[in-house]
Design a protein that fits this description.
heterodimer; A: about 375 residues; alpha/beta; seven-stranded mixed beta sheet; six-stranded mixed beta sheet; about 20% strand; B: ABC transporter involved in vitamin B12 uptake, BtuC; two-stranded antiparallel ribbon
């Protein structure tokens, strides 16, 4: 425990960024936001992007690229180390240390444990990466700026139907992984709602490399669309082997395929795969161009969706302070009534369910890059 | 569609067979299960991948990686099995020793190549397809099948018609009698390990090429299937392992196509269980290697 405390203190010193700006209506006010992120551990790839985003947001507050009306805004980023117990400890800390808002935790499963504690202490929560169902229903001041797949997939299918007159579809998904299973549930519900006939459903297991038997059976039914509910490694092989077997239909992938790594690994076989996402790197709205440039310069790699959603949260928090919010109750009511705010994710506001209202990015892999699907 | 699915099953079975014959060869000769076979399978694939990455032509990279795999097998025997053999340690102790060796090899591979899945350099592999009627097969798959069949043919010839093959079969039949008749036991065992590991390595490289994917856990994925195949074929029987491998490939493919993809492994292992109930010694009985 002592080691953990020391570790947290070091992290606080390293990542906490206190910023006092020049003159503004909120000059002299200070707001501390507690951020819980899995900077290390199994979800470290996501939490690290989030930590980077708040670090950059600290710089950008100083540089005047994010405007908090002169208030001193601190993001106290604490590493929950992908450990649910650590998450609980940190929420308890944030409910007693004067934090006006809690951002995080990284994973939905962690949020299910952490959020009820914060709700019990009337601490407003802004989630940036919890896409599972039942997050914002945990309390009347639990918000999220991350689009869920339930919101993205229907928009994606509408666009595909329009472009290609899709009438039939087949689904292949991993049936031993919660994430890919969710892909299946959401796609099959959306396809049904759109009256697209699902002609075949096949499954595979994590770690499989040969999908030819499934794909041969699917190919026989000649669906217009093949939905791939897979993580990157399997998704790459499915797309490659389907093309090898002469599959002529279109491909749609879930959130699992929305990563530059998919393009790297799939090469030409990835071309034409459509994915639905919450963020598009090439977006030029809401300061995204500057965000991408500054992030890339500072961290040596382009921001991913997790970094963008975290940075958008910083933009939303700054806007709330500009609107006069300095404590938990004021943040809650500001978010609830927020007019669409331009962020790196595009215009963002919250619905009455406290879920985000934002554009989804429907992207197509084309010549080795994600481009908007038209 | 049946023809296409059978073709899918044959390509799958060919690589299973290459993996399984190395496994069964060592069992036939030494009566031990070498659970490090899968680690050598994985290491050979990484070695070939690294060589190809350095610009070595694929054919040469394949050949060099086979030699490396063979030598690793000999080293494995020297370190993990030979000291135990000298002390008559039975069969369980070498089994554990081979697990230890496998874990060490995994660790070394993780240190050298990292935990992520890797792929052969772009354009190193042919993506050409061959169409015969409604059948579509990759040219690469055909080459891989041909290599697998040639290697199995060579092994069969070596075991049947060469002095080395006779020594291997003699040691398999009775080590003491073979020694009395002047067979150099340790040399024969070392060569058996070389051949078995080179074949396992070949399977690793071919499967890596076939799916363009080389990863640390690729051995673990095939290990259990390999074990099931050699039990089905009859422990120690090379012919049995080959037939068992093609049978498993076909059952897996057909169960996905016609029954349920979710129950693929359950069906494949269910069929094996049924066969073993009917023929407890496997398709080709125990110790058929001696008569190979």
């Amino acid at each position: 425990m002592r080691v953990k405390s020391v570790f947290c203190a070091v992290l606080l010193l390293a990542f906490g960024s206190s910023v006092a700006l020049g003159a503004g209506p909120m000059t002299g006010k200070s707001v501390k936001v507690g951020v819980i992120a899995d900077v290390t551990g199994s979800a470290g790839a996501y939490g690290n992007s989030q930590k980077n985003a708040y670090e950059l947001a600290g710089d950008d507050l100083k540089a005047g690229l994010i405007d908090a009306a002169g208030a001193s805004l601190t993001f106290d980023v604490q590493d929950s180390a992908s450990d649910p117990n650590q998450v609980v400890n940190l929420v308890q800390k944030f409910t007693t240390d004067g934090s006006a808002l809690m951002i995080g935790p990284t994973l939905s499963s962690e949020a299910k444990k952490a959020d009820p504690i914060a709700v019990g202490k009337n601490l407003t929560i802004l989630a940036t990466s919890n896409t599972a169902q039942g997050i914002t229903t945990m309390g009347s001041c639990v918000f999220r700026d991350s689009l869920s797949e339930e919101q993205v997939v229907p928009q994606m299918l509408v666009k595909m139907e329009k472009a290609w007159k899709v009438k039939t579809a087949a689904i292949i998904y991993g049936d031993d992984d919660q994430f890919t299973k969710t892909d299946f549930d959401i796609f099959s519900a959306s396809l049904k709602a759109d009256n697209i006939d699902v002609v075949d459903i096949k499954t595979f297991h994590k770690g499989d490399v040969d999908f030819k038997a499934q794909l041969t059976a699917i190919g026989e039914k000649k669906p217009d669309l093949l939905v791939i509910g897979a993580l990157i490694e399997e998704g790459v092989k499915i797309a490659t082997q389907a093309k090898q077997l002469g599959f002529k239909g279109h491909f749609a992938g879930g959130n699992g395929l929305n990563s530059p790594k998919f393009i790297d690994l799939a090469g030409p076989a990835g071309d034409g795969v459509i994915v639905g996402a919450a963020y598009y790197l090439g977006d030029t709205r809401g300061g995204n161009k500057t965000f991408v440039e500054r992030y890339t310069k500072k961290f040596g790699k382009a921001p991913d969706q997790f970094a963008a959603q975290a940075y958008a949260a910083a933009q939303v928090v700054a806007a709330a302070i500009k609107g006069g919010a300095t404590n938990s109750g004021q943040f809650c009511s500001f978010f609830g009534n927020m007019k669409p705010l331009m962020t790196v994710l595009g215009p963002v506001s919250f619905m009455s369910s406290r879920d985000v209202r934002a554009d989804s990015a429907i992207l197509e892999v084309s010549k080795g890059a994600f481009v908007p699907f038209k | 569609m049946l023809v296409q699915q059978l073709a899918n099953g044959v390509f799958l079975g060919a690589v299973y067979a290459l993996f399984a014959i190395g496994y069964t060869l060592i069992f036939g000769v030494l009566d031990i299960l070498n659970l490090a076979h899968a680690a050598i399978f994985m290491l050979a694939a990484f070695v070939a991948l690294s060589l190809a990455g350095l610009g070595v032509p694929l054919v040469l990279a394949f050949a060099l990686a086979l030699v490396v795999a063979g030598l690793l097998g000999v080293l494995l025997d020297r370190v993990a099995f030979a000291p135990l053999r000298r002390r008559n340690a039975g069969t369980l102790v070498p089994l554990i020793s081979s697990i230890g060796a496998a874990i060490i090899m995994q660790g070394v591979a993780r240190g050298i190549w990292g935990p992520d899945e890797q792929r052969f350099p772009a354009n190193a592999l042919s993506t050409a397809e061959i169409h015969i009627g409604s059948l579509t097969v990759g040219a690469l798959d055909v080459v891989i099948l041909a290599i697998a069949l040639v290697l199995m043919g060579v092994l069969s010839y070596v075991l049947r018609s060469t002095a080395l093959g006779r020594s291997i079969r003699a040691v398999a039949a009775d080590r003491v009698a073979a020694a009395l008749l002047g067979v150099d036991i340790e040399r024969t065992i070392a060569l058996t390990f070389f051949i078995a590991s080179a074949l396992g390595g070949a399977a690793g490289i071919l499967i890596g090429l076939q799916y363009n994917s080389v990863s640390l856990d690729m051995g673990a994925r095939i290990e259990l299937k390999g074990l099931a195949i050699i039990i089905l074929g009859g422990m120690g029987s090379v012919t049995g392992a080959v037939i068992g491998a093609f049978l498993l490939g076909a059952v897996e493919t057909l169960s996905v196509a016609y029954i349920s993809s979710s129950y693929r492994d359950a069906i494949a292992f269910g069929v094996m269980f049924l066969i073993l109930v009917l023929r407890p010694t496997g398709l080709f009985g125990k110790r058929a290697l001696r008569a190979a």
